[in-house]
Amino acid sequence: PLTDGRRRGGERFGDGRRFVFSGPRIHEYLQEMHREVFAGRTGQLLAVGEMPGCTLEDACLYTDPARGELDMVFQFEHVTIDHRGSKWDLVPFDLRLLKASLGRWQVGLADNGWNSLYWSNHDQPRVVSRFGDDGEHRTAAAKMLATVLHLHRGTPYVYQGEELGMANVAFSTISDFRDIESLNHYAAATSAGEHPERVLAAIRATGRDNARTPMQWDATANAGFTTGEPWIAVNPDHVTVNAAAQLVDRESIFHHYRRLIELRHTDPVVAEGDFTMLLPDHPRVYAFTRRHDDVELLVLGNFGPDEMVVDLPEAAAWADAELVIRSGGRATNCSAPLALGCWEAMVLRRRSRP
Fold first, then answer.
1. How would you classify the pairing of strands 155-156 and 274-278?
2. Separation CA 189–CA 175 (nearest Å)
């Protein structure tokens, strides 16, 4: 029989996940699935495991090609850094925690295994709202976030609308929401005495409905998603943020995603190169290198609106490097070789010294 999960203070039900995640025969079952379903078949087949609670040590086993289990896993460590305990108990975003988490997984799966790279999915808030700026600097922030993620080692995933910079939706009342998790949390929290507006603020920030509003195809009614009535309201910003508008704008977020995907298909450094984190304690700059044979890429991302000069020991050595991709305009107030503008990302290429 299953053991009851431990109940945290004020919760009606216990959390029994630790009794069912990664059970004692999980590797046996996955190897059987791989053997019976995938082994010996032609074509490009891919098995991905969605694995909450998966540790780095677990992932090394699951994704080791020699074991014949999975090709990669979806782990959730990096999407827990902005809350503590409950997902509704939010804390300010700290870039250093994000770098520590993603960097640890890059190193841990470097030799055996493979990383899934993602910012968003159907259960997570929109990344441009979560880790970026969904206001004045939405386009710049969305491009920067895409560049940083897609230049990591692993397989990037693009959640629907992410390639347009779709943002969280600021529903005004609890009746606008549809997700049962959010509705139950609102009922329980307000019954326990929490102020309704405080509860709503947390739901707006991290609720799952943010990822589930209709895809924004164009500026027409219901964003071109349906001629009927959608099950949840369309984000009002669809009149300016939509696929039709971005298809004709060569500098749009959509076309930036296309360039990043093309780069992964054409540059072996992006697909196969090793990964080295730089400036792990910098609160604003995400910096790392990728190296394959004698080619090295430097990837820089500015997580903020203020222009930033990146102080690296080898900054001068990158002064004449080839510019591979840039997500925005140059910093206006500085001519330093590693200067980043507002929410800007930059990728440079050079031949590395032996």
1. unpaired
2. 16
Buried-exposed string 243-258: b where 16+ CB fall within 10 A, e elsewhere: bebbeeeeebbbbbbe
Label residues 127-154 b or e (16+ Cβ within 10 Å = b): bbbbbbbbeebbbbbbbbbbbbbbbbbb
Indicate the CATH number for domain 21-170+202-259.
3.20.20.80
Whose tokens are 């360039």? That residue is 259
Q: What is the pLDDT of residue 332?
A: 63
Is beta strand 322-326 parallel, antiparallel or unpaired with respect to 274-278?
A: unpaired
The model's pTM: 0.94
CATH classification for the domain delimited by 273-351, as one of 3.40.50.720, 3.30.1360.30, 3.90.180.10, 2.60.40.1180: 2.60.40.1180
Structure confidence by residue, pLDDT tens digits, 215-231: 999 999 999 999 999 99
C-beta of residue 119 within 8 angstroms of C-beta of residue 109: no
pLDDT at site 334:
62
Contact 348, 147 (CB under 8 A): no
User: Which residues are registered as beta bridge partners of 295?
Assistant: 292, 351
Distance (Å, rounded) from C-alpha 290 to C-alpha 106? Answer: 11
Q: Which of 154, 120, 106, 99 is nearest to 264 (CA)?
A: 154
Residue type, 293: D
Q: Which 3 state secondary structure label does DSSP give 337?
A: coil
Average the pLDDT over 119-145 and give the result: 97
Among 100, 98, 50, 55, CA closest to 73: 50
The residues spanned by each domain of the chain are 21-170+202-259, 171-201, 273-351
Distance (Å, rounded) from C-alpha 191 to C-alpha 211?
27
Residue 338, amino acid: L
Sheet strands (E) in the chain: 48-50, 72-74, 116-117, 155-156, 274-278, 285-292, 295-302, 308-309, 322-326, 339-340, 345-351
